[in-house]
Structures are given as C-alpha cells and as structure tokens.
Amino acid sequence: MEIIKVENVTYAYKQYESAPLEALKGITLSINEGEFVALVGANGSGKSTLAKHLNGLLVPKSGDVFVFGHNTRDDKNIYEIRKNVGVVFQNPDNQMVANIVEDDVAFGPENLGVPRDEIERRITWALDVVNMTEYRHSTPHNMSGGQKQRIAIAGVLAMKPRVLVLDESTSMLDPEGRREVMDVVKKLNKEEGITVVHITHHMDEVVNCDRVIVMDKGKIVLQDTPKALFKRDVSQYKLTLPLINQIADRLKSEGVIGDDDVMCAEDLVDCLCR
C-alpha cells in the first residue's frame, strides 16, 4: 500500500545576493508500507532536502507531498504527519534533550500527550529494540556515537511512528557504530514492520534494502534493487560500490569466479570455494 507520495516536487533555498539554489527539480516517487528504501547520492544531490519533505519540515515550492493521504502543505495535517513519520538526523548530540536516557526517550511521547503508564511501556520497548536497556538510567553524553544514535532512534520509536527516516544518521559514526545502527534498522523493518527511508552515501548500507533511489543534482536518476544497481556504473554520480563488490568485479574480469551475484563477503567466499 502506498503511504508516501511525492508529486513533481521542486524546492529552492534562498541565497543572499544570488539566485535561489534549486535543490529539488521535479521529484516524483512513491513509498509503500513496509518498504526499506535507500536514498543515495553525493553531497548536494538533494537527498537530505527530500528527506525533510517527508514529514513536513520543508514544504515544496511547487508540487505536493502526501503522507498517509495528508498533504504537507496543510498546517492542520502536520501533527498527524509528524506523529507517523519520525526522523533521526546526522548528529545524535543535537537530538539529546535530557541528561538521563529514559527521560530523553520519554520526551517525544510526553509531547504527544501519551499517558504516563503507556510512556513507561514505550520506553521499555524502545530501549529493548535498540539493545540499550542496560543504559536506561545512564547519561548519554559519555557514550559512543553508535550508542547515542541508538538512543536517538529509541526516542523516535517511542512515538510509535509508522515510518522511520534516517537522514545521514550513520555519516558521523565509525564502522562499528554504523554496523550497530544498521542492525537495529534492519530489525525494525523486518520484525516490527516499520517502513524505513535511509538517506546515505555509504553504498555498503543499501545491500539489504528493497529499493535504491539514486539522486544527482536535484533529480532522481536511477531506481533499482541493490543487486541490479551494483551491476551498473554509478561512478558518474560520485558513488562507489562496496569494496566486496569491487573485489568480485575484479575476480570476474580475471576469470577467477563466474558471473555470480555477490552482495556480501559470504557470497564471495561461496564463489571462491566452488
């Protein structure tokens, strides 16, 4: 079922003493319930600008965005839209509002007017989902980047959104922190049925997505499955295939392995052991 619909959307940022910077140019796309969609592209491609349109943080210059049938242009719809679409941003420190983890996770549902006993249940559930239960009474400021980002995700989850938008949420993390966050996101999508829109420039993070949307200069230039996308030349969009795929391509060109689909290290090992 289609839950987000973007129709011919354009958006431009105002620039001092110069022409407006057009960040989105006639974007049209739809996202179905339960999908795991990745938005990829180089810096300045428009992917984060598009992400901010999905819960009404930005409103199109022209065109429309519908979220569960609600047009983001109508101010009366914003509460319902933001209740259903949660956004996790790049820097977890900018999302912390309390000195204790459980208070930080409670902030969102408290602002939605959720009863206290229900908030307690949501805190317990959200921290369990992101594997941070043992830190419930800790202060987040001394934690690793990956731990902070998982707390930020828990805070969004406690509001019970149907869609989770990750806006470059792993870009400031080390490889271990990125892995931690992506494991949580995959679990939320597969086990909780939450629709995920993941904005990233790390191509290795899109392997398990249902669909990858490539943006360049404010436009959508490609849409495909990860398997199909990894067979294409994406260097013109300043994207680099995951290292494992680069290795596999080199081995194929040397005749070491056949024309097998390689999406992870385990696939490559299987090909080499035949």
Write a structural description.
- Helices cover 34% and strands 23% of the residues.
- The longest helix has 18 residues, at 175-192.
- By secondary structure, it is of the alpha/beta class.
- The protein contains nine helices and ten strands.
- The strands form two sheets. A six-stranded mixed beta sheet has the order 6-7-8-3-9-10, with helices on both faces. A four-stranded antiparallel beta sheet has the order 2-1-4-5, covered by helices on one side.
Q: How widely separated are the two ends? A: 41 Å
Order of helices and strands: EEEHEEHEHHHEHEEEHHH
Strand tally is: 10
Low-confidence stretches: none
The share of residues in helices is: 25-40%
Major sheet attributes = 6 strands, mixed
Strand order of the largest sheet: 6-7-8-3-9-10
Q: For the CA atoms, what is the radius of gyration?
A: 20 Å
Mean pLDDT: 88
Rough outline: globular
Structural class: alpha/beta
Strand content: 15-25%
Q: Can you count the helices?
A: 9
Considering the chains and any ligands shown, give keywords for the structure:
274 residues, alpha/beta, 10 strands, 23% strand
Topology:
Blueprint: E1 2-13, E2 21-32, E3 36-40, H1 47-53, E4 62-67, E5 70-71, H2 78-84, E6 85-88, H3 101-111, H4 116-129, H5 145-157, E7 163-167, H6 175-192, E8 195-200, E9 211-216, E10 219-224, H7 226-229, H8 243-253, H9 265-273
Parallel strand pairs: 3-8, 3-9, 6-7, 7-8
Antiparallel strand pairs: 1-2, 1-4, 4-5, 9-10
Helix pairs in contact: 3-4, 3-5, 4-5, 5-6
What's this model, at a glance?
The protein is of the alpha/beta class. It is built from 9 helices and 10 strands. α3 packs across α4, α3 packs parallel to α5 (145-157) and α4 (116-129) packs across α5 (145-157).
